[in-house]
Amino acid sequence: MNITLDEAAKEKVLSHLDKDKLLLLTFEDGVGAYSQHAMIHMQTQFSINIISQEMEKADYDETIPSNVGDFWIKGYSKEDLQEEMTIKFNPRLSTFSLSGEGGLIDDNLGFIDFTKN
Q1: What percent of the chain has a predicted confidence (pLDDT) above 90?
Q2: pLDDT value of position 39
Q3: Minimal CA–CA distance to 31: which of 50, 46, 10?
Q4: Domains in the chain: how many in total?
Q5: What residues does the Core domain cover (predicted)?
Q6: How far apart are CA 51 and CA 21, in angstroms?
Q7: Strand intervals (E) in 1-117
Q8: In CATH, what number is assigned to the domain containing residue 10?
Q9: What is the mean pLDDT of residues 34-42?
Q10: Within 10 Å of residue 19's Cβ, how many Cβ atoms?
Q11: Helix H segments across 6-46?
Q12: Closest Cα partner for 46 from 81, 15, 90, 14?
């Protein structure tokens, strides 16, 4: 598995990262400290989360490499992902999308930096 961020997404994500932070690709199923809600729609939902090295990540047990660093994931969420994925940022709408070789996975990928107070 691999994730490639387009230039706009890369710029947006990198502006929040430093050596003491981790990237998560959170499956929004209500499990774990960073999942915002249980899946209540008929669609798959993910979000990009940024946490510090010291923050809890016990539910995140696998990584997917990307061109901005590894994304930690809940291992079971791989069944909703694809081998080659792309994250794009739409500056006009200020939204991210996640797609794979089989098509769109999430057209409104959330973004939360949990290190911001």
Answers
A1: 83
A2: 47
A3: 46
A4: 1
A5: 1-112
A6: 6
A7: 2-5, 21-27, 46-52, 62-64, 71-73, 84-90, 95-100, 103-113
A8: 2.60.300.12
A9: 59
A10: 6
A11: 7-14
A12: 81
